[in-house]
Amino acid sequence: MKIKLLLATLGAILLSGCQSDDERPTLVVQRFFGECGAVYGKSIDVGKAETECGIVTTMLNRFAAENPDINVKVNIVAWPGYAQLSAQIAAGDPPDLVTMHQSVISDYQARSLLEPLDEMLADAGITTEMLTPAGQRGTIKDGRLYALPWDTIGRLWHINTALMAEAGLMRNGKPLLPRNPEELIDHARKFKAATGKPYLVQAQVAAPDYLVANLYTYLLAQNAVVFPDARHIRLNTPEARKIVGLYRTLNEEKLTTVAQDFPSATANFVNGGGGIFPTGTWMIGPYEEAARSGTSALKGYAVAPFPQLWGQSAAFVDGHGWVVPKDDRSSAERKAIVRFLSFLARYNSDWTRTGHLPAFNAVLSSSSFTQQPHRRDIATMAATGQQLPGFVQRQSAIQGLIGEELEAAVSGVKPIDRALADAERRVNELLSQI
Amino acid sequence: MTTAAHNNRLPLTALFGVLLGAAIMVAPLVWTLLLSLKSNSELMRDSSAAFSAPYTLENYRAILVGSDVPRWLLNSIIVSLGTTAAVLMLCSLAGYGFARLDFPFRRTLFVFVLLGLAIPEQAVILPRHQLFATLGWHNSYPGLILPGLAAPFGVFFMTQYFRAIPKDLDEAAMLDGASRLDVFWRILLPLTLPAQATLGVFTFLGSWNDYWWPLISATTSDKYTLTVGLAAAQMNYAQTSGLGFLMAQAVFASIPILIVYIIFQKQIVQAMAGAAVR
């Protein structure tokens, strides 16, 4: 009897996996950003949602509620989800819409795995001119739009204004930022003498993206050609040596925290362990909250784009986008995708509560964006923000290789010349294998 | 106190060493548990807040409420139990065959099976993925269970165990009129229960903890196993702004394994000791 009962239960479980017939077009939306069903599982009020996960979950709930004629299936994937996406494409069963970092689009677009979206976006009422310059640069490849840009993410200087005031580095309520490398060192020494703390809080351990963002930003500022073509990088240059040399000096003089990873650097900054933490747009919310709560050692807070130390103002940025992997789709399914793209554009303003910059010019100039804390101070990045050239593939792997060498260079383990030469050689080897 | 009990007592230095070793082993587990009981915002400021109240079950609530965790748990149970049952059945049959039956190319075939031990999963994962895609087995229970059934270690292990059982038992049973199936089913198989338990526990643990194959084979949320599902549930920068949730996930995922360990503790220890002696 027990065995029969067990078999019946198992049978029921297995049959529960069978799908019922549904004549509605199905839209499989695949995203990262995590799972937060406990708080937002049934929420459709996008305006009240917070955090990346909360906002995207609520948006998808709302889209499903507003479009009962579309069968919306949501796949939440382990960040960043590209192993699963590649497996799905290889198996001939890709999702319909996928969140993708703009720096990754080239990897799939170069292999003709993504749909160009110009027509679908036009049908959704979205033209290229409506997108911010950074959004356009991140999603246009070979003259065609391969994603709906969703935001621009980049590094900012998160500033402890209370400590800056203690060091005499505030003017008219605004932090006084350096205008060249020498001034940066000068400010850093002054800050340390006044507060006894390092000027910069930096995540220099197990954070290759952090070091590389500094390097790329200031190479872009000097108009350096980092990738002369799709198969080569140029790193062992006077421009790069100046940048790495600056960060090495900061380390040597202990004007920065050393040997910290991202979580410990974050905690250190919130606990008033240093003046400036150059990290991502996504940390504006948590730091603002910590400063406002009055319970942390972060007694005053401001943000600014990276200061202009060389050449022109520049910012190395990335962004999230929504791509459509190539697949055979019916007219109804394509219309469902168009409706979803149009819906996404409508809610781009809400997404900026994550700290990221909007992908639409209209949102950038809207009060819903500018009235959020510190957003006016960083809005320029939507124009100045630059990605690597669109033909550069394997950007994440390249970051890893360069980051290792930079870590060795700024910590003094390797001479700067050798580290940059090694980084150049290793990246070129990688690119030659594509 | 008896003399035997007195002789079994550990010297003080050894006792101290064992306690120190145990403390080192337990410390990260306790640290994980304490972190899981703290709010994420508090931990973002200072992870040593784990050592002081207040504690909360909020992170566990976030895992259990409104998510697909029950479904992923069920999937993991089905896949792990299915794999374990099938591996035990196949390895017992194969082990009996190699140990007791005489057939052409037996030795060659056995060596061929053992060669499987030398082939890492990464070497075959691409063709296997393509094969399963062609057969339409991805996002299905068979797709998750079948790859685990290729168990050369299990075949080797059971073969050795069957070989260690005296053949006299088979001959005596056959003289009494038992068929080969009777000998296998009624005489030999019950004698291999300790080996079955060991193999079963290791297979279950391996299948439960598997991440790579389920990640690329089960690509729809409703077919995720617990390991893949929990990874998908993590937000970006979980180590910074979601540390408590991350640790609660680790604790939650290890509970079933802990239960298995408690139930089969004796067999696991025996297996470890046996491996050490060999």
TrEMBL record, chain A:
Alphabetized PROSITE patterns for the sequence: PROKAR_LIPOPROTEIN (PS51257)
Gene Ontology CC annotation, any one: periplasmic space
InterPro entries in alphabetical order: Bact_solute-bd_prot1, SBP
Record Pfam families: SBP_bac_1 (PF01547)
Localization: Periplasm
Region forming the signal peptide: none
Superkingdom field: Bacteria
Protein family: Belongs to the bacterial solute-binding protein 1 family.
This protein's name: Extracellular solute-binding protein
TrEMBL record, chain B:
Statement: the UniProt record of this protein carries the keyword Signal: no
Subcellular location: Cell membrane
Gene3D superfamilies per record: MetI-like
Sequence intervals crossing the membrane: 12-34, 72-96, 108-125, 145-162, 183-205, 243-264
Keywords: Cell membrane, Membrane, Transmembrane, Transmembrane helix, Transport
Pfam families: BPD_transp_1 (PF00528)
Main location: membrane
Record membrane topology: Multi-pass membrane protein
SUPFAM superfamilies: MetI-like
GO annotation (BP), single: transmembrane transport
Cellular component GO terms held in the UniProt record: plasma membrane
Record-annotated ABC transmembrane type-1 domain positions: 73-264
Signal sequence residues: none
InterPro entries in the record: MetI-like (IPR000515), MetI-like_sf (IPR035906)
Keyword 4Fe-4S found: no
UniProt family annotation: Belongs to the binding-protein-dependent transport system permease family.
PANTHER family, per database record: ABC TRANSPORTER PERMEASE PROTEIN MG189-RELATED, ABC TRANSPORTER PERMEASE PROTEIN MG189-RELATED-RELATED
Record-given protein name: Carbohydrate ABC transporter permease
Organism: Sphingorhabdus contaminans
